[in-house]
Structures are given as structure tokens and as C-alpha cells.
Amino acid sequence: MALRIDQDHSRFKQIVRGKIKANLRKYVQQGEMIGKKGKDTISIPVPFIDVPHFKYGAKEKGGVGQGDGEVGQQLAPGEEEDGDGQGKAGEKEGEHALEVDVSLDELAAILGEELQLPNIKDRQNEKIVTTRVKYTGVHTIGPESLKHFKRTYKQALRRQIATGKYDPNRPVIIPIREDKRYRTYKLEQLPHTNAVIIYMMDVSGSMGDEQKEVVRIESFWLDTWLRSQYKGVETRYVIHDAVAREVDRETFFHTRESGGTMISSAYKLCRDMIKADYPTSAWNIYPFHFSDGDNWSADDTRVCVDMLRADLLPAVNQFAYGQVESPYGSGQFIKDLREHLGEQPNMALSEIADKDAIYNSIKDFLGKGR
């Protein structure tokens, strides 16, 4: 019976996985789904799965094991089920939806399969090495702090039974020195890969709530994939108009300011963060910048290009720029980046017209496997 239940559960998980893959493009666009995120899981409404359930008949009506009847008599619906048809007929079949909790690792795997994302190649020259204690067995000697209480108790019980000293009416087990058992261990050296994601966003007046929602949704999927590739991930947030500053996540997605836009201010802050906190020999670095492409001047754009070429691109796994379409932005910045840096292997550029474009933009950013 247990084997059958496991098989049924496995089959149900396969069905759910298939439904998620089939509707992944729709899920990617839904910002409200991200609001249902737990610590390690996310709730997803999976459509068109009819969950089996028992249906009870009306009270005091005949049925199996009730009332008069003969062996072999055909069962028929009760009288109350023969309605008079007063209700209005519907045109569509009912929808069946079930909210299921999917782990973020499983969601990342589905995203990778559906978008055919390659696993990321670690660029580190050196590894951060962590030491882990691995318990390997039990021994008769050791420190009291590593005493294995269960094994000690079982050994004492065996000894008392074997020597006839065990009294079931007074089951007191007293271990002696020879009964004591201790855990043994060894230290393992484990390579530990770290990554930092630095999100930068233009919050000038031309970036409205719709544009910020696109950034919020896309950043969730970028986070989900990168966290599936690395053991440790840090996230930093930078907002800018004419001046850049570091903020927390809540402020990042809900700040709206006015004034001009100097993109170089964000790139300078990003560069300083990397130099101060993230040596390239020990960290995999992923800056993502989102803007509507409207920079203050051509001179500032030249400063951005020079800084990318000299400081940022040599230090990072990949620099990604996403241009979110806005009715107020000129959209010129991505054209300048394509002209001057479009051939750089670790430069990823994407134009995001609306929520429908998030799906392809994720592949633009993650499809190189860097």
C-alpha cells in the first residue's frame, strides 16, 4: 500500500510539473504569484487538475447498505437528483484549479528546462573553502560531549539482559564505562562558491509603477535561477536618478523620484561595491541594470561605456542591461551600448516592452551560461 501511495504521489508531481511547464510563460508574467512566496517554496495555482473526492448523497435516502434491496439490483440516482431544470444552462465547462507549493529549486529546474538555460560556468580562480564536520561512526572512547546516548543505552540494555540483571518490573538501565559509545568524525574541506547580485534601477520620473513591476517580476526569476546555481548568494540594491545610493529591497521597488538621470552615478557605486567587498578571485558577480534608456547627456553615456570597458566587465561574470519601455524615455542608451560594447562576451542586453517580454528577456540574460 505504501509503495502504491508513493507511486501515486510521484505521478501527481509529474502532472503538476507538466502543467507548470505548459503554463510557464503565463506564470512568469504574474506579479501576484510572487507575493505567495514562502521561505523555500512558492504557491502556484495549477489549472485543469480535477482532484478525486467523495461525494455524499442526501440524508435518509436509500443506498449501498441501506433500505430495501436485493442482491444484484441496479442502483439509481435518488429522487432529489431529478431536478426540474429551472437553472440557466452555462456555456463553458467549470474550471478546476489547485494551489500547490513548489520548491524554488524545482521552479528553477523547470525554468532552466523550458528556456533551455545552460548551467553557469564558475569563473573563480580560487575557491572559498569551508570546513564541515562529518560524523563517520561510533567508537568506545571519546569525549563526553560526543557521547551517543541511544547507542550507549542499547549497549547497556543488551549487557543487563545477557547477564540476567534486567528486571522488567523495574526497568532501570544504568550504563557502565564499557557501555559508553561516542561519535567519531572527520573534517571535510568543501569548496564553496559565492555569488553577488547587484540590482540597479533608474527611479527618475519617467520610470513609473508599471516599469517597476516589470523589474520586480524579472528580478524574482533571475534570483531563483542564480540561487539554484550557487551555494551562497548576496543581493544588493542601488537606485539612481542624477545621484545613486544603496537601499534595501522594499525601498528599491517602491521609490519614485523626479529629476534628471545620470546612469554613470550607479555604475560608479557598483564599481566601488565590487572593489570594497567582492574580490573577483572569490566571488561571481552579476550586476543587473534597468532603465528606460533616457540618460542625461551623451557625455555621461561615454563615461558609462568607458567605465564598463575598463572596470566593470573585466571584474564580473556578466553585466546585464534591461531597457524597460516607457512613454517618456528616449530609449537611446541601449543603442549606444550595442554600438560600443555589443560584441563583448559578458555583456547582455535586453529590451523589455511589457510583461509579455519578460519571458524572452530572462533568456537574453541567462542564456549564455556565464
What does this structure look like?
The chain is α/β, with parallel strands linked by helices and 370 residues long. The protein has 3 domains: 1-50 and 95-116, no CATH class; 128-189, no CATH class; 193-366, von Willebrand factor, type A domain (Rossmann fold, 3-Layer(aba) Sandwich). Helix content is 35%, strand content 22%. It has a 6-stranded mixed beta sheet, with helices on both faces. The chain has a two-stranded antiparallel ribbon with strand order 1-2. The two termini are 47 Å apart.
Q: Helix and strand layout, with pairings?
A:
Layout: H1 2-22, H2 24-28, H3 31-34, E1 41-47, E2 97-103, H4 104-115, E3 128-139, H5 149-162, E4 182-192, E5 194-202, H6 209-229, E6 232-240, E7 244-247, H7 249-254, H8 263-277, E8 283-291, H9 298-312, E9 319-324, H10 333-341, E10 347-352, H11 358-366
Parallel strand pairs: 5-6, 5-8, 8-9, 9-10
Antiparallel strand pairs: 1-2, 3-4, 6-7
